[in-house]
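hiii, so i know i said id send this last week but things got crazy w the move. better late than never?? heres the sequnce for the chain we talked about at the cafe, plus the structure i predicted for it. fair warning i was half asleep when i ran it
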Amino acid sequence: MRDDSAISISTDNGGGQINYLAYVFTPPARNEAMFIEQTIQSVIGQTIRSARWVIVSDGSTDGTDDIVKKYAADHI
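okay and structure toks below
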């Protein structure tokens, strides 16, 4: 089912107008310390970023939350 309430964003990159839908990125994370930093850096480097990014912590015990907090402080 199509959600017509999505936000449409337009931008002009110099070669014409580009239309795309805003989106929310919500990855779950539980004990992902080995991979979460690479994932965060990849998302930060995207050309078109999500309108909102919510990392859902599910009780990590390996330092995942600390890594996420470090990046959140710089990218909120």
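btw Residues 5 and 62 are 38 Å apart (CA to CA). thought thatd interest u
miss u guys!!
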